[in-house]
Amino acid sequence: MRNSNFILQLVICVMVLAACVAEAGDDIALRAYINRNQITIGDRIKFTIEITASRGTQIQMPAFKNNIIGVFEIKDSAGKMTGGLFGKKTFHSWYYITAYSVGKKEIPALDIKYKTASAKDWAVKKTGALSVDVRSVLPKEFPADIKDIKGPVSFFEINWFLTGGLLAGLIILITLLVIIKKARETKPLRLPHETALEELEAIRSQLINSGDIKEYFVGVSDCVRRYIERAFNLKAPEMTSEEFLNSLRDSNALTMTHKELLRGFMNACDLVKFAKYKPTGEETEKVYVTAKNFIEETKEVK
């Protein structure tokens, strides 16, 4: 008799507990998080939205126009659902995102719509906003007091009298150089670093005239590659950046410091050449300084 009463009481407790769980299941648990809060430009982070709700609950995830979350671009996404105790289910939706500008960036709060089995209307819960520190791939050791590049000179600011005199002098100088070149039987070979530094200055001057940032980064990158080929007999122009950096891993041609300097430089150039990154004036000048320092510091390396 006692056993029958105990079993009856146990059944009643289970029924009460199930009713409480079902009633509590009308709400959802929501959490949003990232796998790291500090990246460099172009790196991907994993942004996850986790939702726990009763099995009869309908979930409506937010739609991202043009695959953009705040200032972050969605590169890939996926999701899954797992079951739990007391009729619960858990949704996991994750997004691999990246950013192309430096500074403190925020993944904004998102609206998650849901409707329980007993509700007529949709309800909304918000995720928390998340902060991400996006840093530049350029080395930090270069001077920070480099001034921005000046724009092209106005037509009315040009001294045409002086310009005409300079042009006439330039024509005379070119004529003399041609005569001297023809008079010489042999011409001394120029060292690789001399040619590279001259090309670098010409590329910089072309940027001032055209203002084409992408062409400038391509030109500086190709200049350094040609210098490496001439100075160290490495076929840099025929390789991708990753292939070339891997070829230097066991090479004694450059020091470890110069290899790291070259890696940061080439990654910065590739971001402008192949990604959507738009560098600041300071970063544009830093690329020039990095290339020049690399050439001057390695010109004596045997």
- Tell me, briefly, the overall form: elongated
Oligomer: single chain
Number of strands: 11
Model regions low in confidence, pLDDT < 50 over at least 5 residues: 13-25
Helix and strand sequence: HEEEEEEEEEEEHHHHHH
By secondary-structure content and strand pairing, the structural class works out as alpha+beta
Strand order of the largest sheet: 1-3-7-6-5
**Overall mean pLDDT:** 80
Instruction: Kindly report how far apart the N and C termini lie.
Output: 99 Å
Give a short account of the largest sheet. Answer: 5 strands, antiparallel
Q: How large is the radius of gyration?
A: 32 Å
Helical region count? 7
Q: Work out the helicity level.
A: 40-55%
**Beta-strand percent range:** 15-25%
In short:
By secondary structure, this protein is an alpha+beta fold. Helix content is 43%, strand content 22%.
